[in-house]
Amino acid sequence: MKLKLTSFALLLTVIVSSAFIAPVLKPVPYKVDLEKSSITWLGKKLTGSHNGTIDLQSGSLLFDGKKLSGGNFVINMTTIKDADKSARLEGHLKADDFFGTDKFATSTFVIKKVAAAAANQVNVTGDLTIKGVTNSITFPATVTWNADGSVSATAEKVTVDRTKFGIKYRSKGMFPDVGDKMIYDDFELSVKLVAKK
After folding, report:
1. What distance lies between CA 133 and its chain's CA centroid?
2. Could you say which residues form the signal peptide (predicted)?
3. Residue 4 belongs to a domain
């Protein structure tokens, strides 16, 4: 009788404990819509600047309910376009001086951490890989839920130090005597991802 009571008490403890353990929900993936998403770039030099676009190849975002928890995207580096339609500049950006797209056709970003900021603002930290070199970067982003059930994640200004990825062409830090041909080490990306279940 004592053994039965002990067994019953143990079973009751397991049932009661289970009732208070919240179920672990798997993050829900949202696929990035390549047609509605975009990346623009801006690079500055001492005597001016250049800007343009670059295409996404694929991407997905992970959500716990309405909270961004992870994700990644792949950039097709061979699609770099200059807004002024300079074939010479586009060719140079694809060459080894810059992104070496013959060897490194894609760049990737993988979200490692998302910290809430204010309202629909978050700070995203992740691993950016360019030319086979990976560095951690952090930037602010806005997450907006749309009426059609899709979600938009927008980062207006992602600052990247190109020298950390081995892109040293006309860097004043690397070549102090470059003079007025200097190109700033930092370039900026503006990323808009629209994703849906």
Report:
1. 15
2. 1-21
3. no
Residues 6+ apart with CB under 8 A from 22: none
Query: 32-88, pLDDT tens digit by residue?
Result: 999 999 999 999 998 899 999 999 999 999 999 999 999 999 999 999 999 999 999
Domain region containing 79: 26-196
String of DSSP letters for 13-43: HHHHHHHTSPP-PPPEEEEE-TTT-EEEEEE
Residue 139 lies in a domain: yes
Please identify which residue in the block is written with the tokens 């807004």.
Answer: 83
Q: Could you tell me if 161 and 185 are in contact, meaning their C-beta atoms sit under 8 angstroms apart?
A: yes
Q: How many angstroms from the chain centroid is the CA of residue 100?
A: 20
Whole-model pTM: value is 0.85
- Evaluate whether 184 touches 160 at the Cβ level (below 8 Å): no
pLDDT at 170: 86
In a domain, 110, yes or no: yes
For the record, the structure tokens of 62 come out as 């992970």
Query: Max Cα separation, the chain?
Result: 93
**CA of 177: how far to CAs of 59, 174, 180, 182, in Å?**
41, 9, 9, 9
Place of tokens 């490692």: 112
